[in-house]
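Schema walk-through. Below, the input block comes first and the output block second. Nothing else is stored per chain. Lengths vary across the set, and this one has 233 residues.
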Amino acid sequence: MQAKKIINYFSKTEIFLWSSSVFLILISFFIFDRENVLTLFASLIGVTSLIFNAKGNPTGQVLMVFFSILYGIISYRFSYYGEMITYLGMTMPMAVFALISWLKNPYNGNRAEVKVNSISSKEALGMWIAAGAVTVVFYYILSFFSTANIIPSTLSVTTSFIAVYLTFRRSPLFALGYASNDIILIALWLPISMKDIRYISVVVCFAAFLVNDIYGFFSWRKMKKRQTEAVYA
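--- output ---
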C-alpha cells in the first residue's frame, strides 16, 4: 500500500491507537533500555501486526511470523523456554496456517479483509479439551528444562494455543485469546523489570498489545455484523 492509501485505509481511531502504541514503546525504550534494539524492533513489528489483524488483513499474520521469531530469540535469552517453544513451535507455524486460511477466505473477493467465521459449541469444547492436554504436556516439558516462572509460562502456552487456534478458524474471539496471553506476559516480565528497569519497556510493549487486542475484538465484532447484514440485505 502507498502511504496515502494506508492512511485512508485505517480509521482515525486505529491511526491514533497505533501511533500512541508506537510512541509509548519508543519512549519506554529510550528512557529505560537504549540497548536491546532487538526487543524494540520486535515490539514495533508486533504492535503493527495487531492493527492489521484488527482489520482482518492477512498482512497482520505475515508480521506475526516475524514477531514470533524475534520474541522466541528474546525469550531464550531469559530462559523462558515456554515462551520460546510456544512462539517458535506453535505461534509462528500457526500464523502461517492462519495466513493461508485468511487468504483462502477473503470477504467478497477482497484479500484485504478476511471472511469472519464462527465456531460451534462442539468445536469450542474440543478446543478446550485440546488446550487442557497441551497445558499438561507442556508443564512437564517446561519442568524438564527448569523453565523460569513455570506457572505463568505454562498458562502462556494455554492462552497462546487458544489464540492461535481461533485465529486460524477466523473467529473474533481470537483477539480475547491474545488479550489473555498479554496479561500473562505482563506477569512474566514484571519480575525481571523490577530487577532491571531496562525491561520495563517490554512490559509497556505487552500493555500496548493488550489495548490493541481488546480493540481488535470489538473491531471483528463490527466486521462480523457488517458482513452478516450484507448477506441478508
